[in-house]
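Summary for the steering committee. One of the milestones for this cycle was to obtain a three-dimensional model of the protein with zinc ion bound, which we needed before selecting residues for the alanine scan. The sequence and ligand used are listed below.
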Amino acid sequence: MPEAVRRTFVVATVPVALVALLGAAAPPSAGSSGVGDPYFPLAGNGGYHVGHYGLTLRYDPGTGHLVGKAVISARATQRLSRFDLDFNGLTVTGLTVDHAKADFSRDGQELVVTPRHVLRKGQRFDVTVTYKGTPGPVTDPDGSLDGWIPTDDGAFVAGEPQGAMTWFPANNHPTDKSSYDFTITVPKGHTAVANGVLLGERTAHGKTTFRWRQSEPMAAYLATATVGKFQVEQFTTRDGIKVYNAVDPREAADAAPVLKKLPSVLEWESKLFGPYPYRAAGSIVDRAPNVGYALETQTRPVYDSAPSLSTLVHESAHQWFGDSVSLTSWKDIWLNEGFATYAEWLYDEQHGGDSAQQAFDALYARPASDGLWEFPPGDPGSGANIFGTPVYARGAMTLHVLRKAVGDRAFFRILRAWAAEHRNGNGTTAQFVRLAERVSGKNLDDLFQIWLYTPGKPNKP
Ligand code: ARG
Ligand code: ZN
């Protein structure tokens, strides 16, 4: 056989598996339409991770019209023929991948993008999406609204669990955390508040542009771009955290005494949970009567009205538990809500209120028929239950039972180790259980099995 022919022959018979192993020649495939979250199967997308979002928005509260541009810097995690973004409602006016026009189509919340060329595994690429329309919220499985929620003077913007996709195209699942830049233009007299540090503010031709930077990684649901007529206050804490408070004047009198406590709450929580994870902090106190909840938007929680001190403590605790240490699956939501609720109990206990034991006892006294025992917090069953009472209250009770079992020293070491080891990352319930066992040196399987996973009211611990 002549040399050239033999070489061709050898190449042609190299086993397919070896070719796949070598990577380059693996057949390209489509990124999946979800990351496999059992409660929200279409949330997030497979095949890539987002490193950074650059969002440029222009919002007119008078007409409710939004014009947007998203520059999404991502990296392919497989050889990609096409991939999805989550994007709901607004009209896409243009889409490029690395500045080359790409094909796209819409399928419910999936924006399906087919780049001109196959993307190599590991390749970095920029997706630019321009869009416009009149954004509105999504209705969650529990009937609540989230996403872009218009108010009488702007919009309350909060995305847990699904609503980020109502105002920007995203890889909308907490397992993909990214840095963000926001450039938001609103009519002069309005303020646009996003996450992180305010880089600048400029007024020209009757419009004001606000530039915000969230440099630490953030899950899409924690992004905000809340717009309203706000009173603004800015200062730096003695720990060097830049605080920016924006308050609807109609809520200002009720909000002031609570917001005044933010620096001391963050200081107290830093002693308990370890260093505050971000360089910025603050609050957005809006008047949004149809919302009915507050959200721990990263660095700067958003409140639908003047918050109570407990709510401020709760949303602040989420900066560690939920924002810095993020969920891997929405089923594990007790890792957010149980922890933030327990922070409220600890705050009361250490500030002259009821002890955590008293809070526990009052809940435990509820009869077996009470909604508190309707489902176990580690297994809410569906997206409709993730903000149910058992997640918050029995989630916090689980932590109290843990504290009693391991003692205060080990318990607070566990909380700090959890925040430190998963800082700016993600965690699972299984990882928390393992960490608690490691730090305490105790077998805690039964405790967690009963309190997190067993239906019905547990026996008295
Ligand atoms: N995480 C919020 C809290 O701190 C609750 C968000 C509720 N969201 C919703 N769509 N119902 O409690
Ligand atoms: Zn919460």
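Key point for the committee: The first strand starts at residue 29 and ends at 30.
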